[in-house]
Amino acid sequence: MEPIQGRQVATLEIMKEVIKKSPFTAFLGTEILACSGGSAELVVQIRPELTQHHGYAHGAIVGCVADNACAWAAASVVGDVVTAEYKLHLLAPAVGDKLVGRGRVIKASARLVVTTADVFAVKDGEEKHVATMMATIMPVGGGGSDKPRT
Q1: Residue 126 is assigned to a structural domain of this protein
Q2: Calpha distance 103→144 (Å, rounded)
Q3: To the nearest whole percent, how much of the chain has pLDDT over 70?
Q4: Does any domain span residue 24?
Q5: 3-state secondary structure of 111
Q6: DSSP of 8-48
Q7: Which of 17, 46, 68, 113 would disulfide-bridge 74, Cβ 3.0–4.6 Å?
Q8: Measuring CA to CA, which residue among 4, 2, 11, 36 is closest to residue 148?
Q9: Is residue 90 domain-resident?
Q10: What burial class does residue 27 get, using C-beta atoms within 10 Å of its C-beta: 0-12 exposed, 13-18 middle, 19+ buried?
Q11: Which pLDDT value is given to residue 142?
Q12: pLDDT value at position 109?
């Protein structure tokens, strides 16, 4: 996917710095693995404080992983973004050692970016699809804006 002309798009290196400056994302221990060309991949280790009463990763954490995957995929095309809306489908309990979120851009314009993400719980090296999201992401700033704040 081609970047929107005149915008500083997110790269893997930029997003690593953004994570450090985002208190909640840093608290989760989020690690970004890929961010370019309209796609992003990230990992969050499932710690006890991120689970609910059944021991599954809390739905809010699963949603955060999906939201970040969508936003960061969008940022790789349009630069600085915020989420305008999303629909999250929780498909199965998120049981495992970590969550992996993979986002991609479906369509990008200078005003809105339509994205999707899938979240997988990884247990003993096996991935289980636990959630899917569709999100509308909104570019903020203008051409030549600062690094993404997602």
Answers
A1: yes
A2: 24
A3: 91
A4: yes
A5: coil
A6: ----HHHHHHHHHH-HHHHHHT-EEEEEETTEEEEEEE--G
A7: 113
A8: 11
A9: yes
A10: exposed
A11: 58
A12: 93
Name the stretches of the chain with pLDDT < 50. 143-146, 148-150
If you search the block for the tokens 């954490």, which residue do you land on?
Answer: 61
**Nearest by Cα to 100 from 130, 77, 134:** 130
What is the distance between the alpha carbons of residues 62 and 139, in angstroms, rounded to a whole number? 23
State how far the Cα of 122 lies from the Cα of 99, in Å rounded to an integer. Answer: 6
Residue type, 100: V
Task: Give CB contacts under 8 A, 24+ apart, made by 46-54.
Answer: 46/94, 46/96, 46/97, 46/98, 46/99, 46/121, 54/93
For strands 81-90 and 113-123, give the pairing: unpaired
- Distance separating alpha carbons of residues 77 and 63, to the nearest angstrom: 22
Q: What integer pLDDT is reported at residue 5 of this predicted model?
A: 65
pLDDT of 3 reads 73
**Structural domain includes residue 52:** yes
Tally of domains in the chain: 1
User: CATH code at 44?
Assistant: 3.10.129.10
Q: Print the domain residue range for 62.
A: 12-139
CA 49 to chain CA centroid, Å, is 20
